[in-house]
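Troubleshooting: if your tokenizer reports a length mismatch, compare your output against this known-good record of 284 residues.
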Amino acid sequence: MQPTPINDHGSQFLGCLAICGTGTNRLRPSFRHVPIEAPATALKRNWATRFHIALHAVKLWRVGELGKYLALAFTALLPLINPLGGALIFLGLVGGAAPAVYRALARKIAINTTIFLVAVEVGGTLILKFFGISLPVVQIAGGLALAAMGWRLLNQEEPDDKARPSDIDSQSLESLQEKAFYPFTFPITAGPGCIVVMVTLSAHAPERGLLPTITAHAGIVIAVVLLSIAVYWCYGHAPTITARISPQTIHGILRLIAFVLLCIGVQITSNGAEAILKTILVKT
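Known-good structure output:
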């Protein structure tokens, strides 16, 4: 029986087998030279990856915690500090002074506000406990001070002419400098409501560890600094803000704000008295 002749396809197939057979030994060493990672190195790389992921998560958590307390403190203090409304009260108390006097006083008030609120946030609770003062008592005393301030502004006599910068003598400037803390900083800018808010925020800051506590307090401090910057700008530019408003309109606005300030003081006093009465009724 004669062998079956190999066609072109068969010859190509045998040629491929020959090439593969001869090239097998050439291909095997290439697979042997692939580096195989040691188990210890792979474990180290795995732990390094996990560490970077955990570090990234901690950074995101810190930013979220910082933003949370920053937004909380800013939104709680903004209606109480009210830089624009306080600027109008500040304008009514200072009167016709030079713009440089307004800026200097505004700078001192902003710095005093920052130091005052941060001090209350850090040690307010300890100070109140040391002197045996409760928050309702602070509300009553501060509310009465605000109400007295509003009553005085409400009954202030309207000047015949708008005071000029030259009318402010050196003694008046010194008296204004002495009033930078009281009453300009406390209770006009940062009143008893701010004290209650700062003590409450400080008490509700997380105490799960050093890092969460620092992050929460840093957010509160940043909010105070931002509001103090707003106070500086509004107080320093109070004459410019009201430059295009007639004196009669400014006087009416100041009377309205004085009445609102009186109402705020009465409301804060009422809240403190209500809290004390509830405590007494619970004890009885």
